[in-house]
Amino acid sequence: MAAVLCAASASALPPHASRAASASALAPAAPAAQTGEVPRFTVVTHRPGTSPGLLFATPQSARDSGAVHGPQILDDRGRVVWFRPVPAGQFATDLRVQRYRGKPVLTWWQGTSSNTGIGKGVGYIADSSYRVIATVRPDGDYAPDLHEFALTEKGTALVTSYRTVPYDLTPVGGPKDGQAVDSVVEEIDVATGRRIMRWSSLQHVPITESDMPVELTHGAPYDYFHVNSVAVDDDGDLLVSGRTTSTVYKVDRETGAVLWRLGGRHSSFRLGAGVRFNWQHDAMPEGRGTYRIFDNGSVAGSPGWESRVVRVRVDARRRTAAFLGQVTHPVLQSVENEGGSQRTPGGGTLVSWGSSSRISEFAKSGRLLFDATLPAGWSSYRVYRSRWSAEPAAPPAVSVGPDGALHASWNGATGVARWRVLGGDAPAALKPVAEAAWQGLDTAVRLDPLPRFVKVEALDAHGTSMGSSTAVPTDS
């Protein structure tokens, strides 16, 4: 599977290779306990003061073609609460809690990707029992891309997609009969699938704004813009990030006109010291003219290349952009691809350092509160933190491993604190024989001797039963 590069770096760019996944391939997958190894974060730093809630991530491997990919929820100790493996050759991005029809839902994108970081797939919306209640699927040549799946208060979804078209590239030194990649933003009514609006970069942004030298594409379609985030600003218009133009655009939601440019070759604003960013991701509005941007820094290998999260305040009347502050990692210097951030309730910042395999949370003061890493070669494009209360429709499960240990699991249940094990000589004659603290997606319990039949009961923090498995024989 191709890694999610989230825009081509300044190196050889292979041609597109992805195809939209079929509906059958995107059917609900089996619980994680029935699949291969679940990717795990290793918590390096965990200090008091982190924001409440769970972490929502989408680990993927750029190196291991046999790796198990999928969205996952984890706690501050790195213990996996929920994992949904996706079919081989696919991966997931943008797992987060959003609201749909007045209720909290879990959303993510799932599909395939080319080596140039362009995805084709489906956006999923699931309820608090993890039942998929809605999807946003491909519309002809426009398939939802991996970079954005944002729900709005109107019951619509903002998605990105890419389309290769014949294009005259002579203004940037390319061939007249070349090809360009059109970055597309769509707003889709989730309930009906009806398209509300479609914005095309090629219709509104000339290819001469790009920071990507056309010769570095080596004949591949020219991805001059590479949209990688879309958000609704507080005035209702859209904020669109173009990675390879190093520009954040304010776009009229009705007409598609570019209202202003922040950064890049033709910035509408005079940039204050510390504002300029390059090859950015995840440009998000915070309200009242303040914006938060994951600044990847520049093309890999540039002198002084440092990635950061930068906050900028725009004064539309005076046409100025002022530096408000930044977050950098004390050890990590550069992140070539991916990346994102989230403002925490206390004024701190949660950061996914993209392709660096690291996620961090910082206090408002800048102090590092939480730091976790994935194995080398793994990354999570974005990471979010949210409160989430869920109880799966399926009951808990118990099995006996090859080593004779019992394994208790309830994939996605957020309130389990302990497991009670019941055992006996017959399914109708079971009594409590042990208890064990919940240890994540799979909790191993050893009993000696092992009863002929066992079942497990999930207990909350008050010792109240939340649900139980069926009784299973231990000698099967």
TrEMBL record:
* Signal peptide interval: 1-17
* Pfam families noted in UniProt: Arylsulfotran_2
Q: Which InterPro entries match?
A: Arylsulfate_ST, ASST-like
List UniProt keywords, sorted A-Z.
Signal
Q: What is this protein's name?
A: ArsR family transcriptional regulator
